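Lab channel / #folding
Pinned by the channel admin:
"Please post every new chain as: sequence first, then the structure tokens as a reply. Keep commentary short and put observations after the output so the thread stays searchable."

First post following the new format, from NK:
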Amino acid sequence: MSEFESPVLDNHLHLDPEHGRGIEAVKEFARTGGTHLLVVNKPSWHLGDLPTGRDSFEGVFETTIEAVREATEELPGRAWPVLGVHPALVSQLVEAGSTPEEAAEVMRMGIDLAAEYVGSGRALALKSGRPHYEVSEETWEASNDVLRHALARGAERDCVVQLHTESSEDLTEITDWAVERGLARERVVKHFASGTLEGPTPSVISRKGELRTAAERGEPFLMETDFIDDPDRPGAVLGPKTVPRRVAWLREEGYGGAIETAHVETPRRLYGIDTLAELA
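Reply from TO:
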């Protein structure tokens, strides 16, 4: 294969080439042993104005795709883009004067555009979800409508839908919605998940306790940092070196099978990507 003991995939991080560390974060990830990245577009209002329609998302998506192209040049493996709409956009739009349903319509337009990127092969997966904080009942229902729309688009494109939702140990309600729309429940991936999540495939936040739980559980899982690449919040979530370091720790603890699960088998089953072949 290569000098790498195994692929090391961070399933969910953000890159901001204009305001954040951008490619320097990728270099740090690679120097520490990282090989593959799934780069999720930052919330649209972090990279430009509040969106007003479908075309408003294009610049955000193109910025992410360009960051992925540059990241791939620095990695032993490669990076892929995950595109979609952050669920907190509903609150941003409502605060700006939209009704929840008007906000939801804009968000569905963004999901539709992201699905076209997946269909053309320019993106690997979709991103959606619902607020992880208290909102009005009307906003909650509008958000769930957007989420169900994303699951339907994921089914049409036969791709993973990454979720940003409230913290929960059981999100089978959402995977039931996915199955109703023709998307396999395993292809719903909960970002920032615990090691004991029921329903979606957990993308486990790479803290030792959660990873040990996931490893011992023996079910499919992924690993992530949710690195946000925000210079105003340098200590938020986890840094780009974390996943490679946690993989080394898992190996020391004797969890070689879990490493194979998170970085080879689960990516292959869910995304159709071959992380081993990328290193050959």
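NK: The radius of gyration is 18 Å.
TO: also worth noting, The chain has a mean pLDDT of 95.
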